[in-house]
Specification:
- With about 260 residues, the chain is mostly helical.
- The chain has two domains: about 150 residues, no CATH class; about 80 residues, Homeodomain-like (Arc Repressor Mutant, subunit A).
- It is built from twelve helices and two strands; from the N terminus they run E-E-H-H-H-H-H-H-H-H-H-H-H-H.
- A two-stranded antiparallel ribbon has the order 1-2.
- The protein is elongated, with a radius of gyration of 23 Å.
- The two termini are about 40 Å apart.
- The C terminus is likely disordered.
- The structure holds a DNA duplex (21 and 21 nucleotides).
Length: about 260
DNA sequence: AAGTTCGGCAACCGCCTTGGT
DNA sequence: CACCAAGGCGGTTGCCGAACT
């Protein structure tokens, strides 16, 4: 059902996600949001690519996500939406709360494509006005106006996150900017740049070691860069604390990846 | 019972878009 | 304007269990 776990040459894990990985990702995003997918796995203590984390979150771990058991109504809606939108799976997912684009796409390819084709064939062979699907077709307009009210899926965690761009106006690159102060390479920092040596992925901070840490134990946030004595600031509100942490970071030019 | 084929789906890959510099 | 990085999207793959022979 799922790809066998393996590691690429950079030590990035691929394949099926374990329960522990899920829990780490869920815990981190629930706590801090996804402020930067590329860096997130490092802070969450995962040996995964940012893309992989994003995909896992969007398709599987996101709150309110539904799995399997598509209702007749959902299937009908997918078929109607496909008529209108084509293979715009992400757009379709906006109309189907709790369903990811990947799941809709899979459903289409495994079930609905054939069904839609069959219905079309029947439609072509039927006299006009005698068809059940005509009734469905008359729904097209209402689909647009009522059934398909734009129930936009929303990323409440991002919105709630103190680090989200929506709540703090921080750009997605804000942290890269910080890194650039100490990473002088002309290229933007890559995963490998953060790896001081071949043991990078085996470091306790990042690795899937056998010590089952509680999820939060292995999570880091930019604010975690501050020195211990700065942690008294923990009582500050999130934004204030984060900014003071950033200030502290800049002041000390502390780069956790190079230490 | 054993081998083969098929269906379902999680996950990966590569391309495109967007935003920042 | 060009370049780069990150995010997002759609197509495809790989694996496993179920169904079939």
């Amino acid at each position: 059902m799922v790809k066998t776990p393996s590691y690429d040459k950079n030590g990035v894990k691929k394949g099926a996600w374990s329960e522990e990985e899920d829990e780490k990702l869920r815990a981190y995003i629930t706590r801090y949001g996804h402020w930067n997918w590329r860096l997130l796995p490092q802070f969450a203590g995962l040996s995964r690519s940012g893309k992989s984390c994003r995909l896992r979150w969007v398709n599987y771990l996101r709150p309110n996500i539904k799995h399997g058991n598509f209702t007749k109504e959902e299937e009908d809606m997918i078929i109607e939406l496909h008529k209108k939108l084509g293979n715009k799976w992400s757009e379709m997912s906006a109309y189907l709360p709790g369903r990811s684009d990947n799941e809709i796409k899979n459903r289409w390819h495994t079930h609905l494509k054939k069904r839609a084709k069959d219905e079309q064939t029947v439609h072509e062979n039927q006299p006009i006005g005698t068809l059940e699907s005509d009734q469905a077709n008359t729904k097209d307009d209402s689909v647009e106006n009522t059934d398909l009210q734009l129930i936009k899926d929303f990323d409440f965690l991002l919105a709630d996150s103190p680090l989200s761009s929506s709540s703090t106006s921080l750009s997605s690159n804000w942290f890269n900017g910080l890194l650039d102060t100490s990473c002088s390479s002309e290229n933007s920092p890559q995963l490998a740049d953060y790896a001081p040596n071949d043991n990078f992925w085996n470091e306790p901070f990042l690795s899937d070691n056998n010590n089952i840490l509680s999820s939060s134990d292995s999570m880091l946030l930019p604010s975690d860069f501050v020195y211990q004595d700065s942690c008294q600031n923990m009582n500050l509100c999130d934004d204030e604390f984060i900014w003071s942490s950033i200030d502290s970071y800049l002041e000390h030019s502390y780069d956790p990846f190079l230490n």
